[in-house]
Amino acid sequence: MSKNFKIIAADHTGITVSNLERSLEFWQNVLGFEFSHRAHQTSKMASEITGVPGAEIKLAVVKTPGGHKIELLEYLAPPDRKHVSLRPCDVGSVHVALTVDKLDAILEKIAASGWKAAGKPQTLKTGPNAGKRVVYVRDPDGTTIEFMQQTSKRATD
Fold first, then answer.
1. Model pTM above 0.85
2. Are residues 59 and 74 in contact, defined by beta-carbon separation less than 8 angstroms?
3. pLDDT, tens digit, for every residue of 130-146?
4. Alpha helical stretches, state H, the chain
5. What is the DSSP letter of 58?
6. φ, ψ dihedrals at 84, nearest 5°
C-alpha cells in the first residue's frame, strides 16, 4: 500500500567542485551570494548519506538573494573520485537557473573571473519564459549555470 506524500519546498542545490575556495570566491565575490556556513563531514554517516564509501567532504553553503541555497561540496576522499566534463546534452548534467537584472554586465564580470559563456545570449520567443534573454555559462569545473534576464517587453506582447 502506498502512502501519500507531498514535496514541501526545495531546500538547496548541491554542486560538487574541485576547489572549494575557488568556487566560494566566485559565488560570493563575483555573483554576490551571501555566505551561510561551512562544514567538514567525515564518518560513516557521510558515507551512508551519499552512498560513497569513505566519503570525506568539506563544504560551504551560500544563499541567493531570493533565499535559495547553493551547497558547494569538495570531496577529499575517496581517492578514486573522477573529474568528468558533462555537456548540457549529456545524461546526468544538471544546471541551476538564476534571474539577473543585467545579463551583459554579469557576463563581463564572469569572463573576468575565468568563467565563460557556453553559447550566446538568446531571447526566447515562445512559452512561459518568452521575452527572457538566456545563456548558459560554464565554470572551470564544467558546471553549468543558466542566467536569465527579463527584457522590458515580452515577445508575445
1. yes
2. yes
3. 999 999 998 878 889 99
4. 20-25, 44-50, 103-113
5. E
6. -115, 150
